[in-house]
Amino acid sequence: MSQTDNATATSPAKSDFIRDMIAEDLQQGRNDGWVVTRFPPEPNGYLHIGHAKSICLNFGLALENAPKARCHLRFDDTNPIKEDTEYVESIMEDVKWLGFDWGQHLFYASDYFEKLYEFAEQLITKGLAYVCDLSPDQVREYRGTLTEPGKNSPWRDRSVEENLELFRKMRAGEFADGSRILRAKIDMAHPNITMRDPAMYRIMRAHHHRTGDAWCIYPMYDYAHPLSDALESITHSLCTLEFEDHRPFYEWLIANVNGLPGSPYQREFARLNLNYTVMSKRKLLRLVKENHVNGWDDPRMPTISGFRRRGYTPESIRHFCSTIGLTKFKGVTDYAVLEHCIRDDLNKRALRASAVLRPIKVVIENYGADRVEELEFPNNPEDPNAGVRMVPMCNEIYIDADDFMEEPVDGFHRLAPGREVRLKMAFCIICKEVVKNADGSIKELICTYDESTRHGKKPEGRPKPKGIIHWVSARHAVDAEVRLYDRLFTVESPDAGDEDFLQFLNSASLEIVAAKVEPSLAIAGAGARYQFERVGYFYVDPKDSVLGRPVFNRTVTLKDSWAKVAAK
RNA sequence: UACCUCGUGGUGUAACGGUAACACAGGAGAUUUUGGAUCUCUUAUUCAAGGUUCGAAUCCUUGCGAGGUAGCCA
Q1: From the CA of A234, how many Å to the C1' of B55?
Q2: N or C: which end of chain A has fewer CB within 10 A?
C-alpha cells in the first residue's frame, strides 16, 4: 500500500491529436523513428496537478514508444530571480513519486548558457540579431499594438561588428541592468507580436542557483527553449496553448541557427483546469506566502505534494490524467472525476478500519460490565486476501453523532430512541434512553443488545433493522486526530471574475476532530491508507503522526447517498 | 474594423465521409453486515445558416460565440 508502482507502457494509451501526429511522424520515418520528449518546468514553484497532465503525456509517450524513445527532465532555469534549488528538489521528488524516471536525462537550460551565447553570436554574424539600446518603455512603444504595426528600433541597423562588440560587452558586464537587450531581427510589422523583433537576452545581475555569478546576461525563454530542445535532440516539444503564438519564433530559430543536432517541433495542448481550485503558480504561491494554507504540501493544495499528503496515490493521478484526455479545447474538468479516480483505486486496496469521528458514548446495559470479547472483521471485503483482524467489544462503545437522531427525520435508518440498529460485525442494539448533560447535550445513550442477532441474524418478532452502523469499544479505543479536508474554495471558478480569488476561500476547508479509533490503528504507520468504514479514505499524515497518537488526513469521503437526501 | 486557436449531453472526451458513443455527474431499481462497493436501467449532445455529397459532427463558405496574444516572465 505504501510503495508506489511505477508507470508502465501498458497504461491505457488512448489516441489523441498528439499521438496521431507522432504516429504519422513514425510512419513517415521522421527522426529515424525516435520519439524524444521533455518535461521542462521552471524551478520557481511546486508542481501541481496540471503539471501531472504534462508529465503523464511526455513521460507516457516515452514509455509507449520504447525502445526508441525517452523523456528528459529539463529545468528551464533562465530567470534566476524567481528560481531556487528548493523547487528543483521538490520537482524531482514529485516526478519520481508519480512513477516516472528520467534516467540519465536530467538537464538544465543553464547547462547550455555557453552554447546559447555562441548561437546568439552566430545570429548576430548573420545579421539576424542586434543589440537594442531602447529602454523597456521605448521597446513597448516601438512594438506597436495588437491592431497597429510596430516601428523599427533606431538601433536595428547597427553593423555586425558593432553588434558583436556590444553583445560581448553585455556579457562582460559593461552595461547596467536593463540598459540593453539582444533582439532577433525579424519584422516589426508582423501581425504576430511575438515576431516583432523578440528579445533574446537581457542584462540582469542576479545570482543563479547553478551558475552563480558567472553570467550577468540571461536568455529569454523564447530563445532558450527551442535551442535547448534542439540541443537535446528533442523530437516533439509539447507545451500548453499560451505558447501557440510563440511557435513561429520557435521555428524561426530552428531554421536560422546552424549546427543544431536536432530539429524539434512544438505543438500545444490545453492545460488542465479543475473546478473549485486555482492552478496558477502565482496564486498558489500567494496561498502559501500569506498562510492561507500550511505550505505547498498542505492537503488542500492542488499541488502534487498536496495530493500526496492528502493520501492520493500516484496510480490514481495517472489514471485521472488518462481519463481527461488531451485536446486543444480549454475546458474545466469536474473535481468529481478526480475524486472518482482515487475512490476507485483505494476501494480495491485500502484496508478497512473503524473510526468514530464525533463520538457519542453508548452503554449496553445488558452486556455485562466486565465482559470483553474479540470480534472478527474482514480487512477488506473487496479483497479476501487481505485477511481478518480481531476487534474488541465491551459494554461501552462509541458511535458517531451522525448515526443518532433524537427526533429522526423521514428516511433516517439509524439509531433513535426506541429504534434498533445493527452494530457492524456484531449484534443489534435498541436505544432505551437518552441521558443528557446539564446543558442539554447528550451524555450517553443507554441501549440493550440482543445476543440472538449475531452473524447477521435478524431479530425475532421485530422488523430487520435497516441501519448498520460502525462503532469502537470505548475502553479500548485510541485517540486520534483526524483532519477533515474539504474543497479550498466555495465556488467553481474562484479566479474567474475581477474579484480577488481569496474571498472565495472555504473557511470550512479544514476541520480537526478528536476521534476514537479502533486499537489496531494505534500503530498505523506513516503513509498508510485506510478506509474508515462508512466514512471515507484516510491517510496517516507522514509529518505529524506518531505511534500511539495517530494523525489521519481525510483523502476523500465515501459516496454518501443519505447525506444527499438529508441535505434536501 | 490585428493575428492565432477553439466550439459534440450538465462536465470532460470519442466517433478520422457511413447507426453520435464512453467516463464522471444526475435519476430509478436490484443487491448488500459499509445508505459504501457492485450490477441493471435511465435522463441528456454535434453553435448557426448555406453549400458539396447517395450520405456531413467530420469537407467548403459565411456568420455567431469563447479564449489567447502588446514581459527585458515562463
Answers
A1: 43
A2: C
